[in-house]
Design goal:
alpha+beta, 7-stranded antiparallel β-sheet, two-stranded antiparallel ribbon, 132 residues, 15% helix
Amino acid sequence: MREQPNGEALGDDEWVLSGVMWPPEREMNASEVSASLAKALAGSRGVKFFATDLIDAPSDAPLGRVQMAIDETAGEACGIYLTTHIAGVDAETGEPILVDEATRPFKFPCSGCVEEAISTFCENMRLAGVIR
């Protein structure tokens, strides 16, 4: 048996997922990073960049993407959350026009562990009401 966050005991087959999950992150080149994230890290050296998709755990629906920069020397991480919206439809082709929207970069202390940094970032985005 496990305990739900509300303290109610459930059998293992009754566990209710909540929050977000993500597949393994991939390392990115600096040239792939969003302009706002790159600007927030201007002048930093030895920064490693990572990206992953966020998935709503209960529904398995895609939520958006995270780009994360980790500066092990400074003990800091900086992340942005990206979503894609349909801005309109191309009159000639009928294809949707997609636009990326990013949150402001969010910096926080980090031990260098990418998974921990993504988890901390997601928790802060959840508390801010940006993601569920």
